[in-house]
Amino acid sequence: MHEDFEEIKSTYKGKKSDIIPLLQDIQIKYGYLPGEMMQEVSRFVGVSKSEVFGVATFYSQFRFTPKGRTHVMVCKGTACHVSGADKIIEGIERHLGVKEGDVTFDMEYSLESVGCLGCCALAPCAMVNDEIKSNISLKDVKRLFSKRKN
Amino acid sequence: MSELEVNFTIDGLKIKAKKGETILQAALRNGIYIPHLCYHPHLKPTGSCRLCLVENEESRLITSCENQPTEGMEVSTTSPKLDNAKITVARLLVANHQTDCLTCAQDNQCKLQEISSYFGIDEKNMDNLRYSITDIPIDDSNPFLKRNLNKCVLCGICVRTCRDRLGVSAIDFGYRGYNTRISTFSDGPLLESNCVSCGECVVACPVGALVNNENQKPDREVKTTCTYCGVGCGIYLGVRGSKVISSRGDPHHPLSKGNLCVKGRYAFKFINNPDRLTTPLIKKNGDFVEASWDEALEFAAEKLSGYREGYSFAAISSARCTNEDNYLLQKFTRVMMGNNNVDNSARSCHAPSVAALAETLGSGAMSNSIDEIEDSECLFIIGTNPTQSYPVLSMRIMDALANGAKLIVVDPRDIELAEYADLHIQHNPGTDVVLIMGMIKIILEENLQDQEFIDSRCENFEQLLESLEKLDLDYVEQITGVNVDKIKEAARMYANSDAAAIFYSLGITEHSHGTDNVFALSNLALVTGNIGKPLAGINPIRGQNNVQGSCDMGCLPDVFPGYQKVEEKEVRHKFQKAWNTELSPNKGMKMPEMMESAVKGDLKAMYIMGENPVHSEPDSKNIVDALENLDFLIVQDIFLTETAMLADLVFPGASFAEKDGTFANADRRVQRVRQAIKPVGDSKPDWQIISELAQKMGASTGFNFTRGEEVAAEIATLAPIYGGMVYHCLEDESRQWPCLSDEHVGTPILHQDVFATKTGKAKFIPLHYRPPAELPDEEYPLVLTTGRIIYHYHSSTMTAADESMKKLYDLDPVEMNPSDAEKLDLVDGEQVRVISRRGEIRAPIKITERSPESLVFMAFHSPETKTNLITSSACDPVTKTPEFKYCAVRVEKI
Predict the structure, then answer these.
(1) Residues A79 and A102 in one domain
(2) Which of B165, B185, B196, B201 to probe by mutation at the A interface, max A CB count within 10 Å?
(3) Were B24 and a residue from A30, B64, B353, B534 both cysteine, which residue would form a disulfide, CB within 3.0 to 4.6 Å?
(4) B160: nearest CA in chain A?
(5) Which stretches within B651-745 are classed as H helix?
(6) Which fold, B782-893?
(7) B625 contacts B597 by C-beta, under 8 angstroms
(8) Which domain, by its residues, includes A85?
(9) CA distance A33 to chain B (A)
(10) Residues A87, A23: one domain?
C-alpha cells in the first residue's frame, strides 16, 4: 500500500488543502478509504489521523468499508420509504447475510441505503451495480440475488 | 492599578478587567456567574456553546469567552433576547442528554447540571422538544477511564486538550452534522488509538462523558509529591481507611499546574499491592524465611561488623527514596563502615552531567527552572524524549509552542515532539560532539557569539578555538549524516535568539563519550552567553523523582552532602566534628567498580536500598555474577525484585505514601513528601531501618532520629546548599537550592553573577570526536538504542504491580524501520530474536518510521524482555556511565 500512496501523493505538495483530493484519489484506487492510507495522508500533510478521519466522515462521498463485487444501494427516499424500503433492506440483509453499510466476508455483496435514486415512480427501488431494480417486493429479493445461497 | 486596566460594567456593576482578560474571565473572577460549557481556563476559547452570550450596548449578542472588554463597555447578562437564545440552547442540550444524574460519576460537579438549574429547566417545558437520546455503546476499553458519548455535549474541550496541551490528538470531531460525535481514528476503541491514558480529558470534561473507571471519593486527601519522574508534579493522594484510592493533580503547583501523566494519576495501586514486602526476610538454605525486626537487625549487625575494614563493604542508595533516607545511608557507610563506597543510580544516567557541568560551570544541575519553559523563545531539545519520559514537562513545551517559541529537536529517532519542531535534526547516533562543535564553529564563523560574555565570564576560549580549527564542516556532514545547511540553520536559530534554553537527558549522557557530549553543550551555551539568565541555560532533565536529591545528599563516592569533596581536609574536619568520628580521605568506588570488585572477590558485602541493578544495569548477567559472588547482601525494597531475590537479608521499606520526607526534582526544587497511610505490614521508612541498624551496631549518637524532620534539620546544618531546606519552610512552597538559610528564598536560576568554579569563571573545553565503543559490523549490523516509555517507570516494579498498566503496555517491543523489517521479511508484531555480543533476548517487533534505517529502539521496562541482557557495559572513562544508547545487534526471525 505504501507504494500506492507514493504514487498518489506525487502530484501533491502535502498542504492541508490536499487532504480531500488525496482521499478522493485513494477512494478511486481502492473503492473505499483503507485505514492505512488515511494514516499515510495524515503523515504526509502533517495533520493528526483523528482529524483526517474527522474530515473524511463529514462527506458522504467517502466510504470506510470496501465495496463488494455486487454493490446494492437501496433507495430510502420519501416514495420508497412509504412503500416499505425498510422492509426491503431487512429482507436483503437476511438473504445476503450482510448488515447495512457492510460487505459480505467473500467480498461478493455490499449493501447501503441512499437518500433518493430519483425514480420515485418505480418505488420501492434499488440500484444493483449500474442497474435500477424497480417495484421490488420481498419475493423479488430472492430472485434478484438467486446466485446467493445462505 | 497598572494591571487592572479596563473599566467596564456588567449589568450596571462596575468591573475592572485585567489586561488580556475576557469578559467571562473578569465576570467569574468577580463572582458573577455566566453559564458556559466550552470554555476552559487553559484552552483557547472557541465560542461554540453559545451559552456565555452577553448583550452589549448595541443590543448585539457576543460571546463573553472570546471577547475582551473595552474601556467603558456596558454588557448585560440577562435580557429577553438573551434568555430566548440561551435557554433554547440549554433545553436542547438537556433534551439530548442521558439524565441519570444520581448514578453519574460527575454528579455534583457537572456543568450541564449547573446550567440546567441556573435556567430552571423543568421537564414540563421540554414537551415540545423531540428527545433524541442517542444510543452509542460505552467505550470501556481503557482500564482507567471510560467514554459515554450519550452524555457528551460536544464542547470540544477533550479534543482541544488532547491536541493543544498534550500534542497527542487521539480524538477529534467525527461524522460532523446531525450525528456529530467525538471519535478516535477509524472510530475504534480508545485503547487501540494513540491515546496515552493521561486522563487530562477526564479532568477537563465538564459533564459525565469522560469519567474514571474508579469513582469512589476518598475520605481525606494528603498533599504530596509524585514518586515517578524528575519533574516532581504536585499531587493529592486520596485515602480511604488505610488504602490509597485516588491521586489527582495539585492545580496550584508551580510546575505541574494540576496536570499529570498516566503514572502520576493512575499508577498508585502498587502502594497497597498484596505483593508488597511486609516483614524482614532471611535466606536460610536458599529460601527466604520471615523474621522479626530484632532478629533481622541482629543478623545484619553481626554480619556487617565483619566488613568494616578496607574496601570490603559498599552501598547503593536509591534515587526513589527521600533525601532523608539517602542522607542516612551515606552517613551509615561513611561513619559505621568507614569508607566512601556509596553510589546511586545517577551513575548510570546523569553522572556525566554532574562531572562535566561541575567542571565547566561549577554545578551539575539544571541551571534554570521548569516553570520558565512556557515563556521560552527558543528551545533546543537534544537526546531526550520528554513526551515519553517527562510527560508534564512536555506539556509545558507544548504551552511554550502555543506562546510562539521556536523548537529545535535533535534526535536520531523521529520522536513525537519532532512533529512540532521548527527544525528536526536526525543525526547518526553517537555523533553529538561533532554536531555541536560544528554548530559552534558556524556560530563563530558567522560572528553570532556573545563576545562580551565570553571575554568577561569565561576562560580557556583560545583552547576551544584551537580544537575548532581542525574541524572541517564537510567532515561534520560526513560523520553526522546531516546536511551542513541544516546545521547552519539550527546554529543561527539558536544563536540569534535573545535567550535559548538547552534541554537534554540520557541520549547525551549514556554514551562512552557522555562527558564529552555534555562539555560540547556547555561550550555551545557559553559561546552564545545563554547561561545565567532567564529562559536560557543548560538543563539536564533528571529521570527519577529524587536522583537529584540522592546526589545532593552525597550518595556519591567522592563527595559529602552538598557536593563537598571528601578529599578536602577542611570539609572532612567539619564532617568529622559533626559526626564525631574519623572519616576516610579516599574516594570510594563507583557502581561499575563495585561490581568489578565483587566479581574479583575483593568486595564482600553490599547494602542496596531501593534499586534493582539486576534489571536496570547493562550486561545484567555480569551484575548477577557480581552479586552472587558476595558473602553478604542486604536489599531494602518495597517489592521482592530480581535483585532482592539474590539477597541474604531483605528489609521491607515503606513507600513514598507511608513516610515523611523531601524529594529534589530536576530543577533543584526540594518538595515535601507527606505520609498518607501508615506503613503496610511491618515495613518501616528506610531512614528508620538504617538508624536502627546503626544503633544495633553500636552507634550511641548520630542515628537516634525519631522523625524525618530531624534528619532534614541535620542535613541543613551540614550542606550549605540545603541550609534552608527545613520542613517548616517547605510546608506551603518548594524551594530551589542553593537555599542558604531559613530566610533565603532559594535560587531559581544558577550562575547569574558568578560561576561556582574555583576561578569564578566558566570554562571552555576543547573536544575531539570519539566514535561509540561498539560499532555495527557485518555480524551485528544494527544499532540498538534504549529509552523509556510513558506507561512504565524504570524496572517497572511499581508500575507493573498494577495489571491495568500492563494492559496498556507490557512487553518492550523492538522498534524498527519498515525498510529494515522488509529486508528481514518481518511482519508487525511477530516475535524476533535480538542478539548482541553479550546474549540474546526475544521480543515482539514494532514496525515504525520513528526509527530511522539501521537503528532499532527498545525500552528496558519489562522483566520478561530483559533488554539490559544485551546492552553494552562500555563506559564513559570519566564517570563510568554505561553506553546504554549505543550497541551493535542483529535481529533474527524465529
Answers:
(1) yes
(2) B185
(3) B64
(4) A51
(5) 686-696, 708-718, 727-730
(6) Barwin-like endoglucanases (2.40.40)
(7) no
(8) 70-144
(9) 10
(10) no
